[in-house]
Amino acid sequence: MLILSLDTSTASCSVALHRDGLLLGCYELFTERTSAAMLTTLIQDVVQHAGYELAQVDAVAIAKGPGSYTGLRIAVSTAKGLCFALDKPLLAVNTLAGMSEQVRAYYPDTHTLCPMIDARRMEVYCAFYNTNGQEIQPTSAQIIDENSFNTWLSQGPVVFFGDGAAKCQAVLGKQPNAIFPEATIIPSARTIGQLATAAFAEGQFEDLATFEPFYLKDFMTTQPKKLLV
Questions:
Q1: In 3-state terms, what secondary structure has residue 184?
Q2: Which of 93, 135, 217, 221 has the greatest CB tally within 10 Å of its CB?
Q3: How distant is the alpha carbon of residue 166 from its chain centre?
């Protein structure tokens, strides 16, 4: 089972190749606005340098969101193009689930994991997972204030991580059960590929014609100001 995984949920861009769940290669860029320009190059490089050809890939997996509207759209359109061209199935993994997979081995089962992606102002996209990787509260958009997550924090330690955790730490940092790792956890195709391996084994394929990214919220734009003549 050879799975190519893509993650452009945020400003970073990553591509990974897994064989039977084993990571063969992963290329990641952490500069702004890299997804559109570099994604196809990274795909070609990781497959070629691992000693394979694109035609040998058994499935393409993507981080489906939540995240950047533009980033998600780029990854999905690229993945769909590959799947149609190669006649391969599409797998989709929640971006927050992939982030949780990065840290869950480092915390005991008494902890709850809360991956966060920065949204607008004091808002984050988040979900809750246990240290077995099971989702225990679905993905939602939350406005952060001093009362946020009181129910969870009253039950035990909660680990907040991801680029949305900084604004949460400024408000909840004094809570004894609120834990904020020093390292920033960035969405990565490494763990998307791991979770996609299990999804492939269970036949959890997406409908190529109808699949859309998990935007969570509608895309917001601002109206341009009229020029005074």
A1: coil
A2: 93
A3: 18
Domains annotated for the chain, with CATH where assigned, are 2-94+187-201 (3.30.420.40), 97-179 (3.30.420)
- Using CA atoms, how far apart are residues 194 and 198, in angstroms rounded to an integer? 7
How does pLDDT run across 119-178, given as a tens digit for each residue?
Answer: 988 999 999 999 999 999 999 999 999 999 999 999 999 999 999 999 999 999 889 999
Asked whether the beta carbons of 100 and 183 are under 8 A apart, the reply is no
Tokens 């480092």: give the residue.
106
Buried residues in 183-198 as b, exposed as e (16+ CB within 10 A): eebbbbbbbbbbbbbe
Where would I find the beta strands (DSSP E) of 166-208?
178-179
For 185, list phi and psi in degrees, rounded to 5. Answer: -90, 120
| Cα radius of gyration rounded to whole Å, the chain | 18
CA distance 181 to 158: 11
Are the CB atoms for 65 and 10 separated by under 8 Å? no
**pTM value surpassing 0.70:** yes
